[in-house]
């Protein structure tokens, strides 16, 4: 045996949201867990970091919520959606964990809180450590090779290797499963910056506005800031890259209600942009390995589901695998069951997200939905609960109401209605 070889019950590659969640659940099952990450925490990463109530519930389930709330991120009990001068506001239905508010916490604070919660649970977190290869026992993955700050190449053996290392997963690449079996190319870019936010009357509201094919959001977060995210059509990406801050400010001006929201606010960070983030499912389990979080499944950021799913299905992976790590056959069955559970739970919201990510103006049925919600506030909460994942998209609207809205959209005069009917035919 190599002198630098070590043994654990599980090796988790990546210690951010999905990695910490998996490691916490495994440690709670009494397992020795080593989590490896290239970063030194606290550490930033590209993210729009909004959690609806369902995501906050996952923080509570992991035991991390108290730490996260030690930041000064305000609770967000209200969600606002607006389009074409129609404005809808609603709260959340209380989740099974008793949560009825959202949070938007910048990633240095959020990830550091998760890492500290993992350490408290007994996880050994090794920072500034790079995975360079996989170890195998026949067809099974049986560990990793990794190099830390001392430059020593170590063999870390374990019955389970978890690749929780994001969209460009090293583990997925080493396994040869980085090509997705289901994918959709994104149609919206993400361009965002933080603003100083003295608007106390807005500090409890997560807001989204649509104006023609433009989409803008404002999410109050820690540090007295508000995250202002624009999601223009991806074809506008080159113009943004040519003059990032100037085009960003012009993008804000394209959404008058967002511009009004930002009165008295000033930019407090550089502007960041991402234009290539296709949605996908990858094969996510096999003999001795699993891929939670963005390593295995990713949705367009337009519905802000990534962190919630990373936390939930990281935790569920640990709960599935923890009791059976000593039995390879049972472990493989547990990993397959976990992957099926995630796909069944995520497929409908994935498809719904892809519809919202098309970067088109409101179609006539969507316009009728906004009109109906503005007339009937009780309809808005089920739509907010879709984002919170306490309700499926297919359960948010009664079938009879959806049919009436479609009929009204077709009958409403004007070229928009006729164009929308043609597109839907």
From TrEMBL:
It comes from the Bacteria. InterPro entries: FAD-bd, FAD/NAD-bd_sf, Geranylgeranyl_reductase. Pfam families: FAD_binding_3 (PF01494). Residues 8-319 form the FAD-binding domain. PANTHER family: CONDITIONED MEDIUM FACTOR RECEPTOR 1, GERANYLGERANYL DIPHOSPHATE REDUCTASE. This is NAD(P)/FAD-dependent oxidoreductase.
């Amino acid at each position: 045996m190599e002198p630098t070889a070590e043994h654990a019950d599980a090796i988790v590659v990546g210690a951010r949201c999905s990695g910490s969640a998996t490691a916490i659940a495994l440690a709670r099952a009494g397992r020795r867990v080593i989590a490896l990450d290239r970063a030194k925490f606290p550490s930033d990463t590209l993210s729009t970091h909004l959690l609806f109530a369902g995501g906050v519930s996952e923080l509570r389930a992991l035991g991390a919520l108290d730490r996260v709330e030690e930041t000064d991120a305000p609770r967000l009990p209200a969600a606002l959606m607006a389009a074409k001068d129609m404005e809808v506001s609603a709260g959340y239905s209380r989740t099974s964990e008793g949560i009825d508010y959202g949070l938007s916490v910048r990633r240095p604070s959020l990830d550091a809180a998760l890492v500290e919660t993992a350490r408290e649970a007994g996880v050994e977190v090794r920072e500034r450590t790079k995975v360079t290869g996989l170890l195998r026992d026949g067809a099974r993955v049986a560990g990793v090779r990794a190099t830390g700050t001392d430059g020593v190449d170590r063999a870390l053996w374990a019955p389970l290797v978890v690749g929780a290392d994001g969209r460009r997963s090293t583990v997925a690449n080493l396994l040869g499963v980085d090509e997705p079996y289901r994918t959709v190319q994104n149609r919206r870019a993400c361009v965002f910056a933080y603003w100083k936010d003295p608007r106390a009357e807005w500090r409890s509201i997560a807001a989204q506005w649509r104006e023609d094919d433009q989409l803008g959001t404002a999410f109050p977060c820690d540090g007295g800031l508000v995250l202002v995210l624009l999601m223009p059509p991806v074809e506008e990406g080159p113009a943004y890259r040519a003059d990032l801050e100037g085009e960003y400010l012009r993008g804000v001006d394209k959404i008058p209600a967002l511009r009004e929201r930002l009165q008295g606010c000033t930019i407090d960070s550089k502007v960041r942009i991402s234009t290539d983030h296709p949605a996908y499912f990858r094969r996510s389990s096999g003999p001795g390995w699993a891929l939670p979080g963005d390593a295995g499944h990713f949705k367009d950021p337009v519905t802000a589901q990534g962190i919630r799913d990373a936390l939930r299905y990281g935790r569920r992976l640990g709960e599935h695998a923890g009791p059976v790590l000593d039995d390879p056959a049972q472990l493989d069955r547990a990993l397959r069951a976990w992957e099926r559970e995630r796909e069944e739970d995520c497929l409908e919201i994935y498809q719904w997200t892809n519809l919202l990510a098309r970067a088109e103006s409101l179609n006539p049925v969507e316009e009728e939905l906004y009109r109906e919600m503005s007339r009937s506030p009780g309809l808005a909460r089920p739509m907010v609960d879709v984002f919170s994942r306490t309700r499926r998209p297919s359960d948010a609207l009664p079938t009879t109401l959806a049919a009436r809205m479609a009929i009204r959209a077709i009958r409403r005069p004007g070229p928009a209605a006729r164009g929308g009917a043609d597109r839907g035919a």
